[in-house]
Structure formats: structure tokens, C-alpha cells
Amino acid sequence: MIQFLTHPANLPFSVSLALMLMIGLIEGLGMLVGFAFSSLLDNLLPDVDLDVDAPDLADHGAFSEFLSWLRFREVPVIAILVAFLTSFSITGFVLQQVSFGVLGFMLPAVVAGAIAFFLSLPGVRLFAGVLSKIMPKDETEAVSRDSFIGRPATITLGTARRGGAAQAKLKDKHGQTHYVLVEPDDDDASFAQGDSVLILCQVGSVFHAIPNDNKHMLD
């Protein structure tokens, strides 16, 4: 079994399985220290408009349609990622086992990986569709990160300094909690764990913030 999993022809699927297990470990450890990797991943990704008829997506219509087909933004990105890694690795191992049993040899990793990639996509879409139906609406509704501007947040992990972001949590208009990266807007300021801040603007994947002196505006 170990020889099968570590065979060079199965390298893409072994790596995929290892990544899936590592994500599960990070999520489990994150629950113990208050770090939400899944929510942070959602907020690190750029906002994507899935309206394939929009003029500004004319050059990326196929890609946007593909994301829409996968139900991207209907469920947490981490769920789609885990579903893909799991489906890809299982499909690949089964494909190589069948190939070895029928042909007497396993397919090259590149060939098997390409086949498994396309075969795994329907399973990912099916999983995302089921998950989107059982999750509460306010947990699956896409929220633009622009709406975070002006909202209070609380530093939850690390110390935020200019050029060194820390994790903070905030609630959107639906009451859903998001974890974002925050650093002070002032070069000389710093925010410690537990400090309340106000989101001022977004620069790349990091939000700039100022101290929240309004005690009526708490996360």
C-alpha cells in the first residue's frame, strides 16, 4: 500500500491527499487558538463577479462561467478546495489501480493527473451544491470586502504594525464573522491582541485600520 501511494506515477495524488490532511490539521489547531484559516482564505481571495454577461468580464467569460459552475462563492472556498483535493486524489488512485489491473502498468503522472482533474470536477460541483443547500443562507451569501470599510474589528492574533499585519475579526451586515489581515494606517501605531479598531481602507489583501475610540462601535 505504501509503495503504491509513494510511486512516482501517484505523486500528484499523494501530494493532494497530504495537502487535504494538512488543511484539516491547520483548521483543527486554528479552532484551539482562535484562528479561522477558512474565513481568512475567503477574504484573501479577490472579489469575483460571477455575472458572465457583464461587459468587464468579456475577456474572462469562460473562466467566470467555470467558477460559477463550481458554485464558487456559494460555499466557503476552503470547502471547495478540500472537496477538490479529496476527489482528485481518490479519482487518481482508482484510475491508476484500474490501469495497473487492466494494462499491467500505471499511467504517467502527467497523463493520470490530467484525466483525474477533469473526472473529479463533477464531484466537486455536487458536493458544493449539497453544502450550499444545507448551510444557513447568511453563511453562504457572498459579501463584498468593500462593505468592511468603516466597520469595527478586534485583533485576535498577533500584534499589528505597519508592514506586519495581524489577524482581526469583524462582523458583516448579516452578522457573519470574517477574519482579515489588519495593519495600522499610521506608521508609528501598533495594535495588540484584543484592541478594537476601525477598518479604514484596503491595500491589496490587507486592511488598514485606526484605533476605535467609539465604545458604542464594538465588534
Describe this structure in words.
With 219 residues, this protein is of the alpha+beta class. The chain folds into two domains: 2-140, no CATH class; 145-211, OB fold (Dihydrolipoamide Acetyltransferase, E2P). The chain has seven helices and seven strands, in the order αααααααβββββββ. The chain has helices at 2-5, 11-33, 37-44, 61-69, 77-103, 109-134, 137-140; strands at residues 152-157, 160-161, 166-171, 177-184, 190-191, 196-203, 206-211. The strands form two sheets. The protein has a five-stranded mixed barrel. The chain has a two-stranded antiparallel ribbon with strand order 2-5. A hairpin with a 2-residue loop joins strand 6 (196-203) and strand 7. Helix 2 packs antiparallel against helix 5 and helix 5 crosses helix 6. It is elongated, with a radius of gyration of 21 Å. The termini are far apart.
Describe what is shown at a glance:
The chain is α+β, with helices and mostly antiparallel strands and 219 residues long. The chain has helices spanning 2-5, 11-33, 37-44, 61-69, 77-103, 109-134, 137-140; strands at 152-157, 160-161, 166-171, 177-184, 190-191, 196-203, 206-211. It folds into two domains: 2-140, no CATH class; 145-211, Nucleic acid-binding proteins (OB fold (Dihydrolipoamide Acetyltransferase, E2P)).
